[in-house]
Design brief:
Helix content is 71%, strand content 10%. The chain has 141 residues and is mainly alpha-helical. The chain folds into 2 domains: 45 residues; 80 residues, no CATH class. A 3-stranded antiparallel β-sheet has the order 1-2-3, with helices on one face. Helix 2 crosses helix 3. The mean pLDDT is 85.
């Protein structure tokens, strides 16, 4: 009898914890997806969206500026260089983001040209075609 009551209490506690923690996390996840889909729909008509996306991706790849306290003064660290002001460090970071984004656009024509020569086959299809070519059309099995 007491065992059934303990199982019922455990079930109620699990339900409360699910309601308290899991439901809000799922709602945040859903809200983020709705936001992402809305942004994607607006970006299809925006000619500058590609540049913004390239800058966002480059921004994710560059480390943040770190604040270092040395005595009573504050210094700022970015890519092993120490800057006296946060503005200088953020400017160096922005230049680095720009370099990465420009490199993406410099390498883009070669990547697109490579896609044309490869055709529409996936990497797996190309590998299997290469395997069949080496083994006179026979597979491993």
């Amino acid at each position: 009898m007491i065992e059934n009551m303990l199982w019922a209490c455990a079930f109620v506690l699990a339900c409360i914890l699910f309601y308290r923690f899991a439901i809000p996390a799922l709602k945040r996840f859903d809200a983020e997806n709705v936001q992402r889909i809305a942004v994607q729909e607006t970006e299809t008509a925006d000619p500058q969206a590609h540049f913004r996306h390239a800058l966002d991706v480059a921004n994710e790849q560059v480390e943040a500026v770190q604040e270092i306290g040395s005595g009573i003064t504050k210094q700022y660290l970015f890519e092993t260089e120490i800057y006296l002001t946060q503005e200088d460090a953020e400017e160096a970071r922005a230049e680095r983001v720009g370099v990465i984004a420009r490199r993406f656009y410099q390498e883009l024509p070669a990547a697109l040209a490579g896609a044309r020569t490869r055709g529409k086959m996936s990497a797996r299809e190309r590998a299997s075609q290469k395997w069949r070519g080496r083994n006179n059309g026979e597979t491993m099995h």
